[in-house]
Amino acid sequence: MKPDRIEINDLLLRCIIGINESERKNKQDVLINLVLWTDTRPAAASDAIEDALNYRTVTKQIIEYVERSNHFLVERLVERIAEICLCDPRALRVQVSLEKPGALRFARSVGVTITRTRADFGLKQTDAPK
């Protein structure tokens, strides 16, 4: 089975992120894009949210985490976002991209993209709850 994809695009949030003194005091914009791999067939067959990877719930968890976070490195923040996504047993794999607009002079943004699976966090590859 080739997994399906759920995409969440251009989630714009604010958080403390960076190593410079001003970055440690003032929240900055971060732009997040996610691709979640899952099997959408159970939800398609039942038309019931209980059978779906609920992207609204996952997004709320990410928003809550990011807005309270204060990491030094983008690499740490994207890793934590990936772990949050993969805590839903329906999520098989996730790609997280995070950009800091205006982080470098003459560049629109600087970003990091990672791809992680459940195994990367020691989570079992189990079936979704019935």
TrEMBL record:
Cellular component aspect of the GO annotation: cytoplasm
InterPro entries associated with the record: Dihydroneopterin_aldolase (IPR006156), FolB_dom (IPR006157), GTP-CH-I_C/QueF (IPR043133)
EC numbers on record: 4.1.2.25
Entries under Pfam families matching the protein: FolB
Alphabetized UniProt keyword annotations: Folate biosynthesis, Lyase
UniProt-recorded Gene Ontology molecular function terms: dihydroneopterin aldolase activity
SMART domains the UniProt entry points to: FolB
Leader sequence residues: none
Family the UniProt entry places it in: Belongs to the DHNA family.
Name of the protein this chain belongs to: 7,8-dihydroneopterin aldolase
Organism: Candidatus Brocadia sapporoensis
